[in-house]
Amino acid sequence: MTLEEVTQFVEAKDSGKRSASRLLDSQTVQAASSSYKKAKQTAVRDKNEVCTYCGKKGHGKVHQFVSVNQIALHIAISVDTTTVNTTLKSISSDSHKINGRTLAIDHHLYDNLSDTWIIKASQPQPFVNLVLRILPEDYEAFGFNMTKRTNTVAISTIADTGCQSCLAGIKVIHRLGIHQTELIPVNMKMHTANNKGITILGATILRISGKDDQGRHVETRQMT
Hints:
Blueprint: H1 3-15, H2 20-24, H3 26-45, H4 68-78, H5 84-91, E1 97-98, E2 101-102, E3 108-111, E4 116-119, E5 127-133, H6 136-140, E6 153-158, H7 170-176, E7 190-191, E8 197-198, E9 205-211, E10 217-223
Antiparallel strand pairs: 1-2, 3-4, 5-6, 5-9, 7-8, 9-10
């Protein structure tokens, strides 16, 4: 959350406890400013004290707050020594909401160069354009006969470096021109990244080909 969003949140929470007239009263604002300066001086003198507001060490013993301005400023000070998450949780269990609406943040990536988080979309999935085909000789190597005519299929696939075996959905199998009953029976078991089982209907032997970064033709044989 930005400081502006935090301030808006605190103001929304505080409005139910204090009247609008008090929030707009100039004397209250001046008192808040004066009290904050004293709290800041105290925090500088002794950073080992436990904060009386958030219960954390490292930013001094900050005294009781009497206005919205001071709470927001306290958050700004705390950012130096603790995470925004921790500070917001110390304020309220509903700290992820403003006026009853759940806050949502953009996707962030950590930038090592600037040593900070930046708003940036996640990397696109690594799609690769490949050509799939079935050759009878590959089936014969396993003692199976593939006598029917099959299709050569151009398809966009995901290069998943975390996967140990090639997977294809039944729609791809149908595009190749074979039926589920014509798949090779296998006893292999597979699991997803969260350890949930994958139902294996059977296997086929594929010649998978494409082009590398230099435009050269490459091919591999895979039980899929």
